[in-house]
Amino acid sequence: MTGPTIVISPAPTANGDLHLGHIAGPFLAADVYSRYLRSTGRKVLFGTGVQDTSTFVVTTARRLGTTPEALVRRSAAEIEATLGALGIAADGFTGWEDRFTAFVTKVVADLRARGRVRLRPMRFPYAPRTGEYLVDGHVTGTCPVCLATSCGGLCESCGHPVAAGELLDPRSTRDPREPLEFRETEVLVLPAEEYRGQLRAHFDRAAAALRPHAAQVIDEILARPLADFPVTYPLSWGIPAPDLPGQVVNPNAEPVAWTMYCSMLAAEGAGLSPGSEDELWRREAGTEIVYFLGVDNIHPFAISGLAMLLAYGEHYPLPARFLTNEFYELDREKFSTSRGHLVWGRELAAAVPRDLIRFHLACDSPETQRTSFSHRELARLTRIRLVRPWNRIADRTAEWGGRGPPPHRGPGGPPPPRQGGRGRAPGPPPPRKPA
Question: What's the pTM value of the predicted model, to 2 decimals?
């Protein structure tokens, strides 16, 4: 490998700020990994951003009584500010700029022109009263794979793709009482089954780089024929599909174009000048791509995403490093914006020193199983493992003052005098009392 390492944290939906569940997963891990590689002399490009095309932007804006456009602008500013408050510095941060939209349109048009994506009928829930097809955040029901409650598109619980037309007992998220029916309409699809053999061989080779749950999900998905993957949806919010009036690009079909574009932005942010969006992804660039993502994002990035990359051309080696995380909970319950069961990243950073937050979340990271945040544990863990050891060193350094050899105290000796020496770490605030 001769090129840089590109570290990617998939863009969060631009429908609100980041809470600790977001930070403790892909964002802090990607930042720590990038810092580590740089400390060893490696060239690293770290990219992330926001996704404005998700249906959840529309559903959240409706719930908040605002417009999707206003929500995107506000959320993007909040997300950037929260990442900054927690010391997470990306070289490239994507938004809703025109050149990204143009690149996505180009990728879809190229795939269609070469026959790699095709028009085929697909079944969707349909609301006769409003004349709308319901997908992703517009519809909820029961996942036919794991039987958990799921929106259409992807199941957050098991990580499997769930076409909206396959949901059991589908209901509109706007009005669960609204009568629905199923209708077929033609959309562009990627015949993912044509690439299953190549994907299976790739992940057999890359198995050692996967965490156990990610490997399990990939094995389950690739163990059976892959359904056609919808590249466009019959919706009005999103990137307009080229030459298909009334349709937009499925947000979950954007990852290949988005990561290429994000890589280019990160390179530009680091002072480089790549000649095209895909330059760093080509085989001759010698680049390693490393994803940090929730295990529920495995399908759009590692399955349908890599299938689209295979369809797009022979010039691109397949990424092999997908470093996943599980859900980070709050007091053993899932973070929930609607229920107010969460801790906002920026609010915590205003109350607790940033380094203590980063240290605690790194120790408590849900890499292979769910973990749970509590204010009391943050105070206890950082006091025992970071603040006290650091302040012992600071106090001894202040006592020594640089005169002669540093003082030595054997095991079990008395603690040094408590002095307000320079460099002492501030301790965490006392734990919050239950309401």
Answer: 0.90
